[in-house]
Amino acid sequence: MALPTLVSMIPDSVISLVSMAVASRIGTEAVAGTGLASYFFFILMALMSVFMVGLLVYCSQAYGAGRRDLVERAVGESLTISLVLATAIVVSSYLWVQGYVSVLSGGRQEVAAVAVTYLSLRLLSAPATMVVSVLASSYRAVDMPWVPAYSSISVGVSSAVLIPSLGLGYLHLPRMGVEGMGLASAVSQYVGLLVYAFFRPPFRLRPRLPSGVLLRVLAVGVPASLERVVSSAGQNVYINAVARSGVEALAAHNIGISLESVVINPVFAISIAASARVGQRIGSRGSEGLDDLTREALKVGLSWMSVATVLLLAMSPVAGNAFTREEAVAGLVGAYLVLAAVSEIGFGGSLALQGVIRGMGSTWVPLAVNSFAVLVLRAALAQALQPAYGIYGVWATQITDMYGRFAVSYLLYRRLKSRLLVRLVP
């Protein structure tokens, strides 16, 4: 289950690196501006979490219980809501994009102008992105995880071709700069959606009017969505502390986080796989064998993130030079990667445990734990440390955040395991 989910995530890292490389050819403001605009997609991911988590857990339990009819109803109703929500975001974007970017940029007008242009075009991908999130979660829940992987690969390939082609004028296309990057990112998402048309769906796919089934999906998905919203708010406060440290620090942060994502994505796949497998187990056999699944998830999550730590430390002295010609920025990239590396084992353990807890149906627990961690142990602490320690103090809060999540999640699972199990399917 984790392998195809991991394959689904690799293109995101490739796209991030390609975008960073293209932006670096345009200029430092382009690197900072496109990275800043990308933080809005933390918010979009928060909205998508209703389906990425709620639908995954509900459909996994329904599939384990043999209730394919409930899977079809949940998917159809989720498709309807996701399309309405995405359309509202696109139509209303002209009202809020300028103000949102202005606040996030910390008053740096040259960066804000780039971010507004890029975000306005990339937002056109919202309908495709939301529908794909519904399809991907439902396919994984019924043991068809390779179809979402093929869709993601298609997005990755088309992005790797279109972003540099439209951004820098390759393949005899016009050089559109940041505008081309945003447009290419949007078009690529529709290429990924088109892939689903080439595979026979495992259940009937058609939009449905909301009913009680959707309420059960929302009961699990809304806490996960709120978790992302709170995380997005915390990350926005955190990135404001980064931005106040200077354009070089912001550019280095965006390069560093793109490099980091390449080696940490497997643990997200493990978390998703744990949720799906635990949901299926609960739907079919209740809590029998739950501790075994939890141990396996923890072993794999901690093992991979130990490898990720070594990889980031090895990359830190040289990685920045591949994405910037400014020595100051390259040096800051190295510092970011070292501090990120120290946090990764805690991140791996927390994601594995929280994947299990979500599969059990208790999505309120990760909401509470992660909200405290990102708001207090990262965002507030970053703002407090920035005046005295600059960007190094800001980046150090990754460590307090990740190990705080791991410790609290472990204690809650050990002490409250029987109370965390929630059967969603009768």
Verbal overview:
With 426 residues, this protein is an all-alpha fold. It has one domain. It has helices spanning 2-26, 28-38, 40-64, 68-104, 109-122, 126-141, 146-168, 177-195, 212-243, 247-285, 290-315, 327-359, 364-420. It is globular and about 60 Å long.
Write the layout of secondary structure elements.
Blueprint: H1 2-26, H2 28-38, H3 40-64, H4 68-104, H5 109-122, H6 126-141, H7 146-168, H8 177-195, H9 212-243, H10 247-285, H11 290-315, H12 327-359, H13 364-420
Helix pairs in contact: 1-2, 1-7, 1-10, 2-5, 2-10, 3-4, 3-6, 3-9, 3-10, 4-5, 4-6, 4-9, 5-8, 6-8, 7-8, 9-13, 10-11, 10-12, 11-12, 12-13
Strand portion = under 5%
Main sheet? none
Helix content: over 70%
What's the structural domain tally?
Answer: 1
Q: Count the E strands.
A: 0
Low-confidence stretches: none
Described by the principal axes of the CA atoms, the overall outline is: globular
Output the number of helix runs.
Answer: 13
Helix/strand order, N-terminal first: HHHHHHHHHHHHH
Tell me the radius of gyration: 21 Å
Structural class: mainly alpha
Oligomer: single chain
| Average pLDDT rating | 89
Distance between the termini: 25 Å
Give a summary of the structure in a few sentences.
By secondary structure, the protein is an all-alpha fold. The protein has 13 helices and no strands. The protein has helices at residues 2-26, 28-38, 40-64, 68-104, 109-122, 126-141, 146-168, 177-195, 212-243, 247-285, 290-315, 327-359, 364-420.
